[in-house]
Amino acid sequence: MRVALFATCVNDALFPTTAIATVRVLERLGVRVDFPAEQSCCGQPQYNTGYRRACEPLVHRTAKAFADYDHVVTPSGSCAAMVRDNYPRIGAKAAAEGRGTALADAAHALAPRVYELTEFLVDVLDVEDVGAYFPHSVTYHPSCHGLRVLGLGDRPLRLLRAVKGLELRELPGAEECCGFGGTFAVKNAAVSAAMAEDKLTNALGTDAQVLCGADNSCLLHLGGMLRRRGGTLRPLHLAEILASTEQDPWRAP
Fold first, then answer.
1. Whole-angstrom distance, CA of residue 44 vs CA of residue 52
2. CA dihedral in degrees (7, 13, 15, 17; nearest 10)?
3. Which residues of 45-75 are buried (b: 16+ CB within 10 A; e: fewer)?
4. pLDDT of residue 179
5. Rounded to two decimals, what is the model's pTM?
C-alpha cells in the first residue's frame, strides 16, 4: 500500500507540527508515508472566491503529484472536500466548455483516493485505538466540510474516546459553523466574528482544557479569538492528540 501525505498550505505554512503528527500516527500503525514534493495548494482559496479557471492548473498539478499512490491522506477536511467534491465539478465544467476531458479525467482519477485522516484510520486501516495518551479534558468542534461534505460523522469522536487518559466533553451546538468559511471570514468579518464568539462561548462553557478540531483553518480562526479573550482553553488539531503517547507525550509549547 503506497500512501502519500497531502500536508496542505495552512499546515505547511503555519502548523507543520500537525503534518508531522499525522506521519507519526500513521508510521506507528505500520504505514509507510511518502511526501511528494511537487504538491502545492489545492486551489480552494481561488475556488471559494469565484476564480474557477485559476484552479485548473492546480488540479492538474495535484493529480500529477499523487498519481502513483494508492491513498492520499490529509489532516484537513476542507482540502479533502475540495479534491473529492469540487475537482470533479471543475473538470466537468471544463469539458462542458469544450476544452476537453483531460481535467475531468485527472480529477476522477484522484478524488476517490483522497482521505481525511480520521476516515483513513477508521475506514481503511480499521483502527480506532491508535495507542495515544493524552491526559487532558477535550471538547471537539466538527468543521463544516468534514461534517457536511465528507460526512465524517462520529469517526473523530470514536478516535478521541479511545485515547488513554482523555476526558471528552460534549460541545453544545457542535454542528454550528465556527464562522471561518475561508474567504467568508474576510468578506463578512463581523458575521464571522459573531459566529466564532458563539462557538467559543459554548466551548468555554465545557471547562475543557483543549478545543480539538480536524481542520487547522477553523482552529486558526477560533484560536485568534481565544487569544483576544484570554483564558486557558487551547486549540489543538486532532492529529497532535493522536500522536501523543505515554513515552512521548504532547507538551504545550
1. 9
2. 70
3. ebbbeeeeeebbebbebbbebbeebebbbbb
4. 84
5. 0.94
